[in-house]
């Protein structure tokens, strides 16, 4: 269902989740822009992959291309200065004493949403769309629904304007996210996610798996792979016999 009165800004890293969110937004809003952040991430290859995803979506769906506006890339390298994590430095990925993987970048989503809201304010966009999820996730506290709702209140108060944060994947597991991509754009969108999006924390794009490119073992790859396998198994179970 489209909302012809509102304009959206999608936090778009070029991964499975943000690609699905971009398609979701393009189905609903008359004008959609994208923003990404360079924060010194090890998997910086995602910043190139995302441009390929945008081009592919436009080529496959002219109706989406007509609604897709500017892309923005913002420098948030301060995140790598204040947080020594396995996502911003060459360290082994492992669990910490607090129960979180050391890929957690403290304050990352909070800063992303704050800076995105400032950009949206200037661009006269009143919806932020993000792929945060607390169903299939690594336990990051800034992905939780309570965090996002609180951030929406803060942004509205701080900007003195209506600013809605939409998180269409919040209560979906990764298998359901694959299914959502199928519903939004059919096999073409699923193929775009598999072939062009990037999720792997190690930036690995040498090996292509059924679910896409990646090392296959980092937390991001593990979630994506497991979700794909559950989705494929569920789709096969729904096929008629014969």
UniProtKB/TrEMBL annotation:
Q: Can you tell me which residues bind ATP?
A: 12-22
The protein's annotated pathway: Purine metabolism; 7-cyano-7-deazaguanine biosynthesis
User: What Gene Ontology terms for biological process does this UniProt record contain?
Assistant: tRNA queuosine(34) biosynthetic process
Which keywords fit this entry according to its UniProt record? ATP-binding, Ligase, Metal-binding, Nucleotide-binding, Queuosine biosynthesis, Zinc
Q: What's the catalysed reaction?
A: 7-carboxy-7-carbaguanine + NH4(+) + 2 ATP = 7-cyano-7-carbaguanine + 2 AMP + 2 diphosphate + 2 H(+)
Quote the record's cofactor note: Binds 1 zinc ion per subunit.
InterPro entries referenced in this protein's UniProt entry, alphabetically: QueC, Rossmann-like_a/b/a_fold
Q: What is its EC number?
A: 6.3.4.20
Any idea which GO molecular function terms this record carries?
Answer: ATP binding; ligase activity, forming carbon-nitrogen bonds; zinc ion binding
- Cofactor (UniProt): Zn(2+)
Q: In the UniProt record, does the keyword Magnesium occur?
A: no
- Annotated family: Belongs to the QueC family.
Question: Which NCBIfam families does this entry report, sorted A to Z?
Answer: 7-cyano-7-deazaguanine synthase QueC (TIGR00364)
Entry's PANTHER family?
7-CYANO-7-DEAZAGUANINE SYNTHASE
Q: What is this protein called?
A: 7-cyano-7-deazaguanine synthase
- What species is given as this protein's source? Bordetella flabilis
The gene for this chain is: queC
């Amino acid at each position: 269902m489209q909302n012809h009165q509102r304009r959206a800004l999608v936090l778009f890293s070029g991964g499975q989740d943000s690609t699905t969110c971009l398609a979701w937004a393009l189905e609903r809003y008359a004008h959609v822009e994208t923003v990404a952040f360079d924060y010194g991430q090890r998997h910086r290859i995602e910043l190139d992959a995302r441009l390929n995803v945008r081009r592919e979506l436009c080529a496959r769906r002219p109706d989406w291309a007509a609604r897709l506006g500017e892309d923005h890339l913002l420098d948030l390298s301060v995140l790598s200065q204040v947080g020594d994590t396995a996502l911003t430095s060459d360290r082994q990925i492992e669990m910490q004493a607090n129960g979180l993987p050391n890929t957690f970048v403290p304050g990352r989503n909070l800063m992303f949403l704050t800076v995105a809201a400032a950009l949206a304010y200037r661009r006269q966009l009143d919806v932020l769309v993000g792929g945060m999820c607390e169903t299939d996730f690594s336990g990051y506290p800034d992905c939780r629904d309570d965090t996002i709702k609180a951030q929406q209140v803060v942004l509205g108060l701080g900007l003195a304007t209506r600013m809605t944060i939409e998180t269409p994947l919040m209560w979906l597991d990764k298998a359901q996210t694959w299914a959502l991509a199928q519903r939004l754009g059919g096999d073409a969108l699923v193929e775009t996610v598999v072939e062009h999006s990037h999720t792997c924390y190690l930036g690995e794009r040498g090996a292509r798996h059924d679910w896409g490119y990646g090392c296959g073992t980092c937390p991001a790859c593990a979630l994506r792979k497991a979700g794909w396998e559950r989705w494929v198994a569920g789709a096969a179970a729904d096929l008629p016999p014969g």
